[in-house]
Amino acid sequence: QTISADGFNVMKISMGSHTGTHVDAPYHFIQDGATIDAVPLSAFVGNAVVIPLTNKQAREKITWEDLEKYECRMEKGVALMICTGWSENWGQAHYNAHPYLDPDTAGKVLARGVRVIGVDMMSPDLVTDEEGDCGHFHRAWWGKGAIIVENLNNLDRLLLVDQEKLRVALTPLN
Q: How far apart are CA 163 and CA 157, in angstroms?
C-alpha cells in the first residue's frame, strides 16, 4: 500500500518465527507442548544470572562443571543467561557451529528452580551441518513450564552490571 494509491504506506514483512532473538516454547519440539501464548507473562520478568563462558570453542560442550560455581544464584524466578560471545558470529557461515549445553545440565538447573535459560547462540543444542539441531537439551529442558530464549545479543554488556541487581524483561515474539 502506498500514499499515492491508499493515502498511507504499509509494508509487508514475512519471516520465520525463529528469526533473530526469539523465545522457544515447548511446542517447538513437543507435539502437545505448550505454545508461546500459554506461557504466563510473569515468566518473562525476573532476576538474572549471566554466566561468562567466552572461553568455549566451536561445538564445545558446556557442562555442569561450567555452571555449578553459579549454583548459589540459581533459584526460582531467575533467568540463567549463557554468555559465550558467539553472537559476534551472527550472519557468518560458521554461526551454527556454536558451543552447546550438555543435556544433563538441564535437570540440574531445573532442580534449583530456574525456568528460563537464554543463550547468545542459535540454539542451546549441538547443531551440525549433517543433522541440524539435535534438540536433546530442548527436550530435557521442557515439561516443567520452562522456556528457552535464543539468539540473544550483547550479553557481555550485562556482565558489567551488578549481578545481584540484574533483572531482565524478555518479550515473547513468537
A: 11
Q: Is the pTM above the cut of 0.90? A: no
What the block records as the C-alpha cell of 159 is 556482565
Residue 66 Cα distances to 5, 56, 76, 83, angstroms = 59, 10, 20, 12
Distance of alpha carbon 169 from the chain centroid: 13
Cβ neighbours of residue 91 closer than 8 Å, sequence gap 6 or more: none
d(CA 140, CA 134): 12
Residues near 56 by beta carbon (within 8 Å), at least 6 away in sequence: 62, 66, 84, 99
Q: Give CA–CA dist 22/174, Å, rounded.
A: 7
Q: Which residues pair with 133 in a beta bridge?
A: 127
CA–CA gap between residue 153 and residue 83 (Å, rounded): 9
pLDDT digits (tens, 9 = 90+) for 37-68: 887 777 778 888 999 999 999 999 999 999 99
Q: Which residues pair with 45 in a beta bridge?
A: 169
Q: In 3D, which of 22, 16, 51 has the Cα closest to residue 39?
A: 22
What angle is formed at CA 98 by the lines to CA 97 and CA 101, rounded to 5 degrees? 125
Quote the distance between the C-alpha of residue 132 and its chain's center.
17
